[in-house]
Design brief:
- Strand 6 and strand 7 form a beta hairpin.
- It is globular and about 75 Å long.
- It is α/β, with parallel strands linked by helices and about 650 residues long.
- Strands 2-1-3-4-5-6-7 form a seven-stranded mixed β-sheet, sandwiched between helices.
- About 40% of the residues lie in helices and about 10% in strands.
């Protein structure tokens, strides 16, 4: 009997996730495995792919291929790129260095508008031009925001290049939602299979080269691909395809947020042409079981939350020997060792002050607790493990993890990625951070509950909190009750105002299109939002369209919410979003355009004294909300 090769585990971040900071899944898995003395490495192929494409070499290859296109097939971005080819090749290296923080003085040349070649994306600046034809970005960045202006212009420049890649090289290309439609809620594997069997393009070929180089560097026996979003599925399968073609002996495993949410009923055998195993939910326990199995220490029947393809029948089988999950306090400290932390791109795409935190700056991502302590919201996937299994860790354990991460990365910014960070845990952690003089900056997501008193908000600010976001969702007490949010409009007003008074930026997640929401509800919600901005309760917000998922209370008990679900086709691959019919018959898409326009202006202090009906290009009912409702709620704090 041949000896089992020593374990060497390589975790990949597949394209596309984020470009400003590593997606945390591989950092968590690598830290955990190393705490168990397992040899492991990690690579961010999302960043590597973009840096290769957006280089002199990459753009030269792009330009050479585009030059062979018939003129009638060239779009405006392609024409602009080819006409300014020499300038793009001259500026791409310095611009990437600037966005990586390695050449800050270049900001002066970028803002002059004489350095970067400008494609169609720069046309968006015209909407900001003042009446005298003056500074188009002065409203956003003021007189002293030179670096931010330059960052925004450089981001437009990269977006122009992304358009060129999409129009001329790979029609699925995006910096975030790459080939998303091939995977998101796709009932069959057919679209993805067709794409994976099609001739490769420059993006595919580049990803293949990067994959093989990483395999050569680390010589793994096991490769983990963590797929958080539908927009990283196609590339993950391309990576696995490359590995199986060149190194079939390497064991490949698929997991991550997309799998946990959409592949829970996986029955497609073709998936296992690419991956040997597919695991669900928290990865630590299934991974330990799989590694034991690979080493001959555990039978296949004793795997945990793992899909396999039976060798004799070719059918997919789910194996789940029930074992306790690894305690949150024992999962170890995430490590970013091996990731090129000095090469991430700090972008400034959206001028929304909260959204920019997602793409601007390199944040260490950390979880205060596993799951959600509330886990009642009717639109949320509360039946899934990442929501339903709530488990915390002590403040000292969390602070130790923070200290370790700061020592390793040299970065003191943290994004707490909880669904909703528990207030008791935040209070204990803040007290510990202050006692240690830790000196970090942090932001995260919470519920706007009354536990966040002015005193607690001050404490959180003293510990380094710079921003918080929370779900106001549909700003209607009736609908908040139906959603089981456990908050009221008045409560949200008082809590958000307390955060603002403590110097903490407040972002509200807002929703439209929830079951039974009427036009009157929507007008009233917009009036509440107007008052929240006008009374300095929130400084940032965004309206999202409600989507019904099969794992949410709405999707599981639609009759309780007055809707009828549309039947799904037979599912062998992904299953998540589900269509529904709402008897109200409201055109929520048309309302959404108005809501987004209004809140964009509210964030810039425009229209805060106007009747909200003025935002609608058609007649809508007058709001039923008292014009001083939020002001009164703040006076009645208690």
């Amino acid at each position: 009997m041949s000896a089992v090769a020593p374990l060497r585990v390589l975790s990949f971040i597949p394209p596309m996730t984020q470009l400003n900071t590593p997606y945390p899944s591989t950092a968590y898995l690598t830290g955990f495995l190393r705490s168990r003395e397992i040899t492991c490495f990690q690579e961010d192929l999302a960043l590597a792919l973009v840096l290769r494409l957006l280089s002199v070499q990459g753009l030269t290859e792009v330009a050479d291929r585009l030059a062979q296109m018939p003129d009638e097939q060239r779009t405006n971005p392609i024409h602009s790129f080819l006409a300014q080819r020499a300038r793009y090749l001259a500026t791409i290296g310095p611009t990437i260095a600037f966005l990586q923080g390695r050449d800050s003085t270049l900001a002066h040349r970028i803002v002059s508008r004489h350095f970067l070649p400008e494609g169609p994306r720069f046309g968006s600046l015209d909407v900001y031009m003042d009446e005298e034809g003056g500074d188009p970005l002065g409203w956003a960045f003021g007189a002293l925001g030179l670096h931010d202006r330059a960052k925004h212009l450089a981001t437009l420049y990269l977006n122009d290049l992304a358009d060129v890649l999409r129009d001329g090289i790979d029609p699925r290309f995006e910096f975030v939602r790459y080939a998303e439609s091939l995977a998101a809620s796709q009932p069959t594997f057919d679209p993805l299979a067709a794409a994976l069997s099609a001739p490769t393009n420059l993006v595919d070929d580049t990803l293949r080269e990067l994959t093989l180089a990483a395999i050569e560097r680390h010589q793994p026996t096991v490769v983990l691909l963590s797929v958080p979003f539908p927009g990283s599925v196609y590339a993950a399968f391309r990576i696995a395809q490359t590995i199986k073609a060149r190194h079939p002996h390497i064991v490949t495993m698929l997991g991550g947020g997309f799998v946990n949410t959409e592949l829970r009923e996986l029955a497609e055998p073709r998936v296992f042409d690419f991956f040997d195993y597919v695991t669900l939910d928290a990865g630590e326990r299934p991974l330990l079981a799989l590694l034991d199995h690979i080493q001959g220490k555990r039978s296949k029947q004793r795997l945990v939350r793992t899909f396999i393809r039976e060798a004799d029948t070719g059918q997919v089988r789910y194996v789940n020997m029930v074992e306790p999950d690894v305690a949150f306090a024992e999962v170890g400290t995430p490590t970013w060792d091996g990731l090129p932390l000095d090469q991430y791109l700090s972008l400034l795409d959206m001028l929304n002050p909260m959204h920019r935190l997602w793409s601007d700056g390199r944040w260490n991502k950390l979880t205060v607790a596993h799951g959600c302590y509330w886990k009642k919201c009717s639109f949320c996937d509360v039946s899934l493990d990442y929501i339903s299994r709530y488990e915390g860790a002590s403040a000292s354990v969390l602070a130790d993890r923070i200290d370790s991460i700061v020592r390793e990365t040299g970065q003191t910014g943290f994004h707490f990625v909880d669904e909703a960070a528990p207030p008791k845990s935040l209070k204990a952690l803040a007290t510990e951070l202050i006692a240690r003089n830790t000196g970090i900056s942090w932001w995260g997501n919470i519920r706007f509950e009354k536990t966040f008193t002015p005193e607690l908000c001050d404490l959180l600010a003293d510990s380094g909190c710079i921003a918080i976001s929370g779900g106001l969702e549909v700003a209607s007490d009736r609908l908040l009750t139906l959603m089981k949010k456990g908050v009221s409009i008045d409560q949200v007003a008082r809590v958000t105002h307390a955060f603002t008074e403590s110097g903490i930026l407040v972002h509200a997640y807002l929703m439209y299109g929830f079951p039974t929401q009427t036009v009157q509800d929507t007008v009233d919600a917009l009036e509440y939002v107007r008052q929240l901005f006008a009374n300095n309760c929130i400084q940032s917000g965004f309206f999202h369209r409600f989507a019904c998922t099969v794992h949410s209370p709405v999707g599981q008990s639609p009759e309780e919410y007055g809707i009828r679900l549309r039947p799904l086709p037979p599912v062998s691959f992904a299953k998540n979003d589900i269509g529904f019919d709402d008897p109200t018959g409201v055109d929520h898409d048309a309302l959404g355009v108005v809501l987004r326009k209004a809140i964009y202006n509210f964030m810039h202090g425009i229209g805060l004294d106007e009747d909200v009906r003025n935002w609608f290009p058609y007649k809508v009912p007058k709001t039923t909300v008292s014009r001083n409702r939020i002001e009164r709620a703040l006076r009645e704090r208690g």
